Amino acid sequence: SMRGEGSRGYPAYAGAELATSSAYKYGKFEASIQYAGADGDISSFFLWKPSSERSDTYWNELDYEKLGTKWNGECKMQLNLISGKPGPNGHEQVVDLPNICNEFHTYAFEW
After folding, report:
1. For residues 81-110, b (16+ Cβ closer than 10 Å) or e, as one string?
2. Which of 7, 49, 54, 62 has the highest Cβ tally under 10 A?
3. Which letter does DSSP use for residue 98 in this model?
4. Cβ atoms within 10 A of the Cβ of 79, count?
5. Which residues are catalytic?
6. What is the rounded average pLDDT of the residues 12-30?
7. Residue 93 — pLDDT band, cuts 50, 70, 90?
8. Cβ within 8 Å of residue 49, ≥6 positions away
9. Can you give the pLDDT at residue 18?
């Protein structure tokens, strides 16, 4: 569980990364996330094709990404589709999802 108690009352786990060299033609990735509420903390749930940063590889990335708190102290969610060869070419959309930094919500990629 990501909600365990660590030292001094802080969570035992504050983040994680799961990586694989396998490709998936179909499936579902799902996470229960409470995004970090401070500016400067990177909070995201994303799928990314390895080696996308290389100029000879098609960039392929999907993101749920927390934006800073410049909106009256409220966190905002940005959805990103980043693709191209060479890339990256970004297509971003800010969406109004309340309390993403104050509560856990479930996010999923399914294809």
Report:
1. ebbeeebeeeeeeeeeeeebbeeebebeee
2. 62
3. T
4. 15
5. 61, 65
6. 79
7. very high
8. 23, 57, 58, 59, 60, 61
9. 79
For residue 30, list its beta bridge partners.
Answer: 108
Phi and psi of 27, rounded to 5°? 155, -165
- Name the helix (H) or strand (E) containing 109: strand 105-110
Read off the DSSP letter of residue 99: T
Q: 80 and 90 in contact (C-beta within 8 Å)?
A: yes
Residues 38, 92: Cα–Cα separation, whole Å: 21
The 10 Å Cβ neighbour count of residue 69 is: 15
Per-residue pLDDT tens digits for 22-56? 888 899 999 999 998 878 778 899 998 888 888 88
